[in-house]
Fold:
Amino acid sequence: MVRYIKCSMTPRIAPLEPPFEEDVQRILTKMMPRQSPIPPLALFRVLARHPPLADAMQALGSYFLGKKANPAEALSSRDREVVIDRVCARCGCEYEWGVHAAVYGERVGLDGAQLAATVAPAAEGTALPERDRLLVALVDVLHDTSHVPDALWEKLAAHWTSTQLLELLVLSGWYHAIAYVANGARVPLESWAARFPTAAAG
Structure:
């Protein structure tokens, strides 16, 4: 179910390198967290080659990773990261999985075994609790069929509001788009990011 595509990682679209032009620097500053100790991500430096597209993508990315206007309706950061990690694993996107595992994994309470479980072929019998396994099931069925069966939807609706469910659907689709860019452009892996466990999920 989860597959790795081993291929040359020579970038097809090379990330921009400093010194950056003023417009590029503006975009990268918006995309990166304030006072980040990490240099601008290679993915962002690829997207910055197309400033209007980068600006458009930054708005939705910031929504998912930033503070929401109504915290009571927002997804928990753990729910968000389980979905992102599973989407990236199913897409074989080691780049984005590794960035999120390294930056957010421990912060949202995902330990090493649980992060590895987001890449496992099946969630059952893993270190993930039932709530996380429901999110994995949602990502898997969307990835495989672009639909959600009624029985699964009923289980999801017992844990998340309709607003949150809508956000989960868009979040899953959004990180497919991110994975397509990272994989298609062959964005080079960040040196500090996590790597896929030896057995993976696609």
